[in-house]
Amino acid sequence: MNIHSENRLSIIGIGPGDISLRTGRAVEAILRADYVVGYRPYMQLIEDLLPGKEIYSSGMGKEIDRVRAALDLLDRGSVALVSSGDANVYGMAGLGLEMAEHPAEVEVVPGVTSFTAAACRAGLFFRECVAVISLSDLLTPWKEIESRLRQAADFSMPVALYNPRSRKRDWQLLRALSLFEDRDLLVAKEVGRERERLIWTTASRLMESPALREEIDMTTIVILLGRGCYRGNSAREAEINLVGTGPGGRANLTAEAEAILNSSEKILGAERYLDLIGDYPGEKLSQSGPCPERSYARFQEAAVLARAGKRASILTGGDPSIFSAGWRIIDLARNSLPVHISPGVSAFSSVAARAGAPLSGDFALLSRPDDAAAPSLLAAAGFGVVVYNVRGHEVLPLLQDLAPERAVALARDVTRNGEEMIIMNAEEMMELRPSGFRFTLLISCPRAEIREGRIIAKRGYDSKYSY
User: Fold this and answer.
1) Using one digit for the tens of pLDDT, what is the confidence trace for 115-168?
2) pLDDT of 270
3) pLDDT at position 464
């Protein structure tokens, strides 16, 4: 294959569906491409970006054909290979990098993931941890899926279930629910699309209701609550807005975030977030002091404006639902003022995209776990694992029980000035003994390799298809 060096393959997360939840960076990457390749229903979600493009689309089960088409087209121009949600979350990033001749030349553009979009719509916050598991056993044996479900249940983790049920596959959801019978759960259907529907229930009620289970299909996310969850409310529109800024920089904001910030009288948040988003008409304010006091001060400023009919924005890094202090704002506003929660690209998505495709299967997110053995136990069960807010001296104990050949990444300030990204296997990382603070540690999904400085975790397509 004779690929022109100026022709780029971009694997792009377009968000869960709504045009407002695309990032500027995703839109730009699609617009600059000569060819756009994707699953037919996803192409319908970006029709406004396709005039003048040559389009290659196909149906369910044709993932390998789509990647092959994208790679073949590189000899003729730049190519955008699109995924819904985030390309690293059961998307096309893993397979695209696996099949690419030169993965270092492939760009992965992260997007708003469906489970965080659902959480923001519902006012749900994950404060300690969350596991993300697909119930589809097309590429992963059920025995492995159930082992991960049990591990998450043993840790009392919240669990986001992807691919919970299809026309031909309905028993897996019942098996999963039987492990979490006492849990509250959210059924989020077609998040970010015209027919969006959110239903709160419990695992036991869902097991007992065939009619409710009929509501669940492949466009549905089921989120089981667990330790550290905070359940509040999110208004569709409100004068007070909790805005996820993504990894930093205006291009990483969603269209919704841009519109909210442009119409805000005041923008409140940490100084680093205020600096990263760029200039907007509203006044920028950064309060100091301990976290609870900062949240209270920001809410009070926003509340004064809201009662006067003016809009205010309160910023969080990444996505508000993942390990942010945004829940404090919702708690302060409870029963007094509505708050709209605007999703953003999560930090784990950004780190994964810069590292390559390390999260092609099930994964778990942890916020500085008290138990240093937790990441290794989750990794042994087959999860990819992302640990937030790690100090350099904590890396060794977090990795000491991990298989030495497991691919890992240590990142800080991804997509920002001073970005750091170290990619190597666990044994090499332990020997490195990194120093510093505010790192994100990523342990890849199993069956990963490091090629041209990128982590590529195989999702299992090679066991079903020849490519």
Assistant:
1) 999 999 999 999 999 999 999 998 899 999 999 999 999 999 999 999 999 888
2) 93
3) 60
Between 465 and 367, the higher pLDDT residue: 367
**Across the chain, what does the average pLDDT equal?**
94
Is 296 a residue whose pLDDT tops 80?
A: yes
Structural domain count of the chain: 4
DSSP-assigned states of every residue in 251-290:
GGSBHHHHHHHHT-SEEES-HHHHHHH---SSEEE---SS
Reported in sequence order, the residue ranges of 174-311 that DSSP labels E, i.e. its strands, are: 184-189, 197-202, 220-224, 229-231, 240-244, 266-268, 283-285
The rounded distance, in Å, linking the Cα atoms of 435 and 258 is: 36
Beta carbons of 352 and 83 less than 8 angstroms apart: no
Residue whose tokens read 């409100």: 238
137 and 206 co-located in one domain: yes
Whether residue 109 has pLDDT greater than 80: yes
Closest CA to 322 of 388, 235, 377, 411: 388
> Which one, of 184, 161, 106, lies nearest residue 456 by Cα?
106
The answer to whether residues 121 and 187 touch, using CB atoms and an 8 Å cutoff, is no
Strand order in the sheet with 184-189: 197-202, 184-189, 220-224, 159-162, 129-134, 363-367, 384-390, 439-443, 407-412, 420-425
Determine how β-strand 229-231 pairs with β-strand 124-126.
antiparallel
To 5 degrees, how large is the angle CA 81–CA 319–CA 264? 105
CATH of the domain at 299: 3.40.1010.10
Which of 113, 147, 181 is a domain's end point? 113
119/192 Cα distance (integer angstroms): 12
Domain extent for 436: 362-444
Backbone torsion region of residue 124, taken as left when φ is above 0, otherwise alpha when ψ lies between -120 and 50, otherwise beta = beta
Closest by CA position to 374, among listed 385, 382, 363: 385
Q: Does the pLDDT of residue 414 top 60, yes or no? A: yes
DSSP string of 9-22? EEEEE-BSS-GGGS
Q: What residues pair up with 124 in beta bridges, in sequence order?
A: 231
Helix, strand, coil percentages in the chain from 3-state DSSP, rounded to 5? 35, 25, 40
Structure tokens at 176: 């999963």
Beta sheet of 240-244, edge-to-edge order: 283-285, 266-268, 312-316, 240-244, 339-342
- Decide which of 345, 379, 408 is a domain's last residue: 345
Better-scored residue on pLDDT, 467 or 68: 68
Side-chain-facing half-sphere of 412: CA atoms under 13 Å: 12
Q: DSSP readout, 322-378?
A: BT-THHHHHHHHTTT--EEEE----HHHHHHHHHEE--SS-EEEEES-SSTTHHHHH
Q: Is the pLDDT of residue 2 over 70?
A: no
